[in-house]
Design goal:
Layout (H helix, E strand, L loop, with lengths): L17 E5 L32 H12 L5 E5 L9 H9 L6 E6 L6 H10 L3 E5 L5 H8 L5 H14 L3 E8 L8 H8 L5 E6 L17 H9 L4 E4 L9 E5 L5 E5 L12 E4 L4 E3 L8 E2 L1 H5 L4 H14 L4 H7 L15 H4 L2
Parallel strand pairs: 1-2, 1-10, 2-3, 3-4, 4-5, 5-6, 6-9
Antiparallel strand pairs: 7-8, 8-9, 10-11, 11-12
The structure holds S-adenosylmethionine (SAM) and iron/sulfur cluster (2 copies).
The site of S-adenosylmethionine has 21 residues, from strand 3, strand 5 and helix 11.
């Protein structure tokens, strides 16, 4: 495909280089910070299968995005392993010209050894696995589900055994909830090859009752780990890398810290998000997305869709976290409207 597209920069001169794709809004967990059970319970209306983009539609959109320089794809959700035949989608995306990295974020509860191998075979390079505690009670309290902790830990083992180029574990740290598990997690994943990443609790969505005093900040995390293990900062791998990297001074590996609250990084944010129904979101905290599915289903050709994507990106001016930070932690006025849910847009 050769489209007539020009290099694309948004209003703050940020390029478009990453695309996160939510493949489902459903999840088998009910983490309180993302899908609290009282909201996402029995009566909650999830998307219907017919509303979801098909794999062919996703592949077609990704091919168009590559023309603008997108080379990295992350599959997420909801829980991406709930989407049937997700391995097939991985394969369809990995073989696209211009795509050099296909990754996934998952809670790993459904990651069997066989599945970890099949996904790797299909072309998945990297896996980020979410795990917020090793203490069973805290794990249970956060995820609000009866999935044994051992299923997630086994998933991490299978990912390591399958030989992915990187396996990261994401821990969302909430003060007073699981910050006591920072050191146990650090001890557990040192010398394993897993990069443990601590994520500041964010005010995503509309239902997690976020407040600044529940955030255990990046500086607090580093100071806490330093009490037991000496850490040294490491250069970023590339411009715009979200996680700040640190090495253990004794060579036991690396950790990352994602400080969206205390040190926001909107200035380097080159990430677009595609919901499971094909809406393009230009920020995690957006109120609405731009419908691309109707263009696909109305039979428009690729150039029309490319032009629309270009128009959306060029107008982009998002900087929610920086505004929040400049206001001392209080939410920007855009959040008076309903924000999109994290489980809908993908993390
Ligand atoms: N279900 C998959 C999982 O949990 O890995 C993928 C989707 S989940 C929405 C993606 C990531 O968003 C997870 O690492 C999760 O911990 C993170 N996340 C969700 N809500 C968050 C919040 N309020 N603050 C910070 N991170 C959050
Ligand atoms: Fe599900 Fe992931 Fe949200 Fe937890 S963070 S409820 S695992 S989508
Ligand atoms: Fe990007 Fe929006 Fe997050 Fe800023 S707040 S880093 S613009 S997703």
């Amino acid at each position: 495909m050769t489209l007539k597209v020009n290099a694309i920069l948004d209003q703050r001169l940020r390029p478009l280089s990453d695309l996160r794709i939510s493949v489902t809004d459903r999840c088998n967990f009910r983490c309180g910070y993302c899908m609290p059970r009282d909201i996402f319970g029995k009566g909650y209306k999830f998307l219907k299968q017919t509303q979801l983009l098909t794999f062919e539609e996703i592949q077609r959109l990704v091919a168009i995005f590559t023309e603008y320089g997108v080379s990295k794809i992350r599959l997420t959700g909801g829980e991406p392993l709930l989407r049937r035949d997700i391995e097939k989608l991985v394969q369809m995306l990995a073989k696209l010209e211009g795509i050099n990295d296909v990754a996934m974020t998952t809670n790993a509860s459904l990651l069997t050894r066989e599945r970890a191998e099949q996904l790797k075979e299909a072309g998945l390079n990297r896996l980020n696995i979410s795990l917020d505690a090793l203490d069973r009670d805290i794990y249970q309290q956060i995820n609000e589900i009866n999935v044994p902790l051992s299923d997630v830990l086994n998933g991490i083992e299978y990912a390591l055994e399958a030989g992915y180029s990187s396996v990261k574990v994401n821990m969302v740290v909430q003060k007073g909830v699981n910050h006591t598990d920072i050191l146990p997690m650090a001890r557990h994943f040192r010398n394993t090859g897993v990069i443990l990443r601590f994520i500041e609790f964010m005010d995503v969505g509309n239902h997690n009752d976020w407040s600044l005093d529940q955030v255990f900040t990046a500086a607090e995390i580093v100071a806490h780990i330093n009490e037991e293990f000496s850490l040294e900062p490491v250069e970023a791998n590339y411009h715009g890398e979200v996680a700040k990297r640190w090495h253990y001074s004794d060579g036991a590996g690396e950790i990352g810290i994602i400080s969206s609250i205390s040190q926001p990084f909107c200035g380097g944010c080159s990430r677009a998000r595609l919901s499971a129904v094909g809406e393009l979101f230009t920020c995690l905290f957006a109120n609405a997305g731009f419908d691309l599915r109707s263009l696909l289903r109305a039979g428009h050709d690729d150039q029309v869709i490319a032009n629309r994507i270009g128009q959306i990106w060029r107008r982009r001016d998002d900087q929610y976290s920086e505004v929040r930070s400049s206001q001392g932690g209080s939410a920007p006025s855009s959040s008076v409207k309903r924000k999109v849910e994290m489980s809908y847009i993908g993390g």
